[in-house]
Design a protein that fits this description.
The protein has 9 helices and 11 strands. The protein is of the alpha+beta class. The relative contact order is 0.09.
Length: 337
């Protein structure tokens, strides 16, 4: 645990588990995330680098044959990454190449030749921009409507004076064209037959607005390869919900495998190898034979799944490793207890 807590090279602000969590969130939001293997005071550490800091010098500098999206290539193969620092104005400075061997690149692209990842919100970015513009317009409309109390339709179409003044007012202005009568704390206004005074009512979004929101949610679910029920709200009966949860579980396990191969194991191997070389950890021929515990399977019916697992275990249809993995436990640790 101590080794995990000192793997963050940016001042020890994050535990290694928090770094892994940020890596997953950054990859889904930005498309990919980077980590640099550094040595600080003789310890192997990891420094996370946000995706936009790996660029061609600026975000708007065009690609070349040798530098594509901040990735230095040779014969189409990445050999280094062009990393920049962020300045206080939101720009980038101090660009330098870092060898590929010193970097970890966490991405999960659907394209074989892709050098950079793509945000999982790509399928709905335009719709979300439209949604933002619509929300901004509606917010302004609501603010404007909140300042309107009455709507007055007059014969002359002009602006009236304050009709809450009674006829006994000492004002020398022309007579009020709206008759006003006060009854206790209330005021009654009388108009001509063709005139009308009514309280202003604020319009509310209709069905088309809700359908547009629903469309955005569906597109977000498509981008994340997850069922809509998992992203937003569960619907349907038990079998339908279990089907959605099993589909989501496959996505979560695939995400863990990608994170395991591209971030967890390389990070741990780097830190452990530095400690072995420094003599802080004795060398063992199987030092790299380790596994990270995967996530617990997603379920909505724990009792049903436990009963099914017991039956499979008794019938010897499943391994002990699979049995403990389903509950988020390590088989070797549990069998040694």
């Amino acid at each position: 645990c101590e080794a995990m807590s000192r793997m963050d090279a940016s001042g020890g602000r994050m535990h290694f588990c928090e770094m892994a969590d940020r890596a997953v969130k950054s990859r889904r939001r930005d498309g990919d995330v980077f980590a640099q293997k550094v040595s600080v005071d003789g310890y192997g550490m990891i420094k996370l680098i946000e995706a936009d800091r790996v660029n061609n010098g600026t975000l708007y500098k065009p690609d070349t044959d040798e530098l594509i999206g901040g990735v230095r290539v040779r014969n189409g193969i990445p050999v280094a990454y062009h990393v920049t620092d962020r300045d206080r104005f939101g720009g980038f400075k101090n660009g330098r190449d870092i060898a590929r061997a010193e970097m970890l690149h966490v991405l999960d692209s659907d394209r074989v030749e892709a050098l950079r990842g793509v945000t999982e919100f790509d399928v709905c970015l335009n719709s979300l921009r439209d949604l933002k513009e619509t929300v901004d317009a509606m917010r302004g409309k609501i603010k404007l409507n909140s300042k309107v109390a009455l709507v007055i339709q007059s014969v002359l179409g002009g602006k009236r004076r304050d009709f809450t003044r009674t006829e006994s007012s000492d004002s020398t202005e022309e007579a009020e064209t709206v008759g006003v009568q006060e009854v206790n704390d209330a005021t009654i206004a009388y108009t001509y037959p063709s005139e009308r005074i009514q309280a202003h009512e604020q319009p509310i979004p209709g069905d088309s607005w809700e359908k547009f929101i629903d469309q955005c949610v569906h597109m977000i679910a498509v981008g994340h390869d997850l069922p809509v029920g998992v992203i937003w709200a569960m619907t349907g009966t038990g079998p339908a919900v279990r089907f959605d949860m099993s589909a989501a579980d496959r996505v979560f396990r695939r995400e863990f495998k990608m994170l395991n191969l591209r971030f967890l194991r390389p990070s741990c191997a780097w830190s452990t190898s530095v400690d072995i070389e420094a003599g802080r950890i004795p060398f063992h021929p199987n030092w790299d034979k380790y596994e990270f515990q995967g996530p617990v399977g997603s379920t909505i019916d724990m009792g049903r799944d436990i009963s099914s697992g017991i039956n499979e275990n008794e019938a010897m249809l499943g391994s002990a490793s699979a049995w403990f993995d389903e509950s988020g436990q390590n088989a070797e640790e549990q069998t040694l207890l």
